[in-house]
Amino acid sequence: MSRKIDILQYRKAMISFFLASIAILFFMPGGGKFKYEFNQGELWLHEELNAPFDFPVYKSETELKEEHARVTKLSLNYFVLDSLVVEKQLALLQERIDRDNRREFASLKETFITIYNRGIIDASKISELKNKSIAIVRGNTYEETPVSELFTQISANEYVNNAVRKYYYADNLNLSQFIVPNLIFDETLTSKIRHKNLEAILPTEGMISEGVKIVAHGEQITPEVFKALTSLKKEYEKSLAGGNRFLTILGRTFLVFCCMGCIFALLLTFRRTMLVENKCLVFIVTLLTFFIILALQVLKMHPNLIYAVPFTIVPIYISSFFYSRPAIYLHFFMILLIGSFVPASFEFVFINSIAGITAVIGFKRSYERGELFFTGLLIMLVYLIGYISLKLLHEGSLSDFTWYIPLLFLINSLLVIILYQFTFLFERLFGFVSISRLVELANTNRKLLRDLTEIAPGTAQHVMQVANIAEAVISSIGGDPLLVRAGALYHDIGKMKNPAFFVENQPAGISPHDKISPEESARIIIEHVTYGVELAHKHHLPNAIIDFIKTHHGKSLVYFFYMKYMNEHPDAQDAVQKFTYPGPNPSSKEMVVVMMADSCEAASRSLSNPDETKLNDLVDKIIDRQHAGGLFNDSNITLKEINTAKSIIKNKLKNIYHARIAYPN
To answer: Is the model's pLDDT at 160 over the cut of 50?
Structure first.
């Protein structure tokens, strides 16, 4: 029956990954991909490449920018000559001149027509134009005129005064008031013609005919060869978008299903529980699908923008809620899938792989002050150093390294820091436990732990010692020290119901068990597990902590009272069930360590005058009995790790009891 349930649950996981793959395929860009990877300055390590068809040679992005800048610089500014201005100003001038001076007005009129026909421009425009030529529009035609040949109001006034100085009224009349600009800047026409000139720039510069050699094996990829290869790649992918449509789609489908299938297989092999738990499965599949589709959409906007996408948040989330190893696996295959569509695939995969490992290692300590921002900065530096290193390796220079690349890396790191704050939301939605949450739970000022200190002070001291011992062990053999510490602090909260029945809370020589039967004693002792689980649910402790409460005794016997009962009832049968904890047995290395530390620390309190020999024998006896009883079988702890744990627990107990070391004679 259990096997059928497992198959059903794995079937759900397979369906989830299948649907995710379909969604990714739907958002994938059309067309195929050029099969060669190349970089300027490197050697061509493939076979000799000849042009498979006629194709144009495209100008580089730098060349197009320079040509655009040159066209923009040489483009004329268009000014419309307003013919009505001279008529208006001459009419005003005529009103100011006496009737007796009509003959002189005729000469003055001719001078004014001369300056207005040449053109008067606003002096503020002179500095903007920087002595360039302009286009003067007269009706439907225009003529290019140097700015130096135009009048300003000041130079036009000087010209008029010099021309009419012989007339008597020249000194009595201020002619400057009749001189105004008649060249009006036409911004719309200027932009329209400039845009037309920019559109006329050809993106290509020549053709390469079919069969012509592009590059030979072992030949260095020069700038000219690089331009030809880039042009061939562009035309090749464009042709695949139109032809061989079925084969292109088939290749993309195999690629996506291969990557997603590898992720599924890795989880099935190493972290099967992540596929069985529905919430965990939904979270992982949704997270992967979202970031893959996001990357594909960003690539459509601009390839370089892909470096602003915070891919490292994916392994950070997974390692924060689950484990580091699957986090790195999932990140690598996600990057590998996305990298197959990024122009510089190796560069993208390499940089993001290193950044992902850095993020997992760094954010494992993000509960410490300042570590979150330090790790974000470290991720940015890894991106930047990796990008610069590959640029230098491939091209030998940073000539095309633009200022916005570091900005993209900075945006990436800031987004990682911001998105990390959403762990709180995911904890509430999916019931996960993050590093930050564990830090909160391990705070001894929390109400539940304060209640334990007040109600069962001996137990409070016991759990603190267990937490210290277990944390030291798990740090040595490998595991999650913070999870172990939090689990150890809460594993005995159920003892608050009947604290006096547990030895650590009893005054010397006084035990309420002396007045009740072994069965009743066992029931009260076992009840601290079930009541602890109830109390944990009441205080909304996460399942990861509740598991420590359930498993810290596993399915072991309340051995003391079982033996007492059997001594009193030697013929009793089926008594084992009454004296057995409900379990289950520990399912992880962390739970096993808490079980060992709890049993050894509690038993050490019963020793009179504990010394090194007594403590060593006690630890060996307890842990060997647990191991032999199969309590560790459901976990992934090894025999070597068990022996290491024994050694550490012994040393910790010696330090607690200050046991004298036995020196040789």
So the answer is: yes
Last residue within a domain, chosen from 411, 430, 449 = 430
Q: Which of 601, 634, 625, 516 is nearest to 565 (CA)?
A: 516
Residue type, 472: A
Q: Is residue 297 part of a domain?
A: yes
Other Cβ atoms closer than 10 A to 392 = 13
State yes or no: cis peptide before 584, omega within 30 of 0.
yes
Range of the domain at 78: 70-199
- Please give the full DSSP string across 132-165, using - where no structure is assigned: -EEEEEETTEEEEEEGGGSB-HHHHHHHHHHHTT
Put residue 255 in one of left, alpha, beta given phi > 0 → left and psi -120 to 50 → alpha.
alpha
Residues 459 and 531 grouped into a single domain: yes
**Residues 248 and 240: beta-carbon distance below 8 Å:** yes
Residue 579 is assigned to a structural domain of this protein: yes
Strand, coil or helix: 428: helix
Question: How many structural domains comprise the chain?
Answer: 3
Domain membership flag for residue 647? yes
Contact between 12 and 262 (Cβ < 8 Å): no
Residues 53-81 pLDDT 10s: 888 888 888 888 888 888 888 888 999 99
Same domain, 426 and 515: no
